[in-house]
Write a structure and sequence with these properties.
Helix content: under 10%
Largest sheet: 7 strands, mixed
Number of strands: 11
Number of helices: 1
Order of helices and strands: EEEEEEEEEHEE
Low-confidence stretches: none
Mean pLDDT: 96
Radius of gyration: 13 Å
Structural class: mainly beta
Shape: globular
Distance between the termini: 40 Å
Length: about 120
């Protein structure tokens, strides 16, 4: 029901900023970003409901990353700042029709039936 496409990844240096975008063919209820670093399992990064009034972040990115969305353009953003080498990963956009206002549900992969192909972010030291 929803198709997602990420963009904005690239090669940056430690301390740089980068903004990722996710464009949806539909209108997600909740949207989220996950990432998979080299040799690591996919992990939750951030999520946001349709109205944008509540956001959730993993401890590793809070105070550095900001998730936002523009519903008129069916686009979700991840503004990343103070990037670290450990932020190097493929970043995936995920979406659900259900709106999550629970931190646990909003952070679970299984909560999101729709996924993009991912965009690579590489942070050099």
């Amino acid at each position: 029901q929803v198709q997602l496409a990420e963009s904005g990844g690239g090669l940056v240096q430690v301390g740089d900023s980068l903004r990722l975008s996710c464009t949806a063919s539909g209108r997600p209820g909740s949207a989220a970003w996950f990432r998979r670093g080299p040799g690591k399992e996919r992990e939750f990064v951030a999520s946001i409901p349709k109205n944008g009034d509540t956001t959730y972040y993993s401890d590793s990115v809070k105070d550095r990353f900001t998730i936002s969305r523009d519903n008129a353009k069916n686009t979700v953003f991840l503004q990343m700042g103070s990037l670290k080498p450990e932020d190097t990963a493929i970043y995936f956009c995920a979406a659900s029709l259900t709106i999550f206002y629970d931190a646990f549900l909003a952070s679970q992969e299984l909560s999101y039936p729709y996924w993009g192909q991912g965009t690579q972010v590489t942070v050099s030291s």
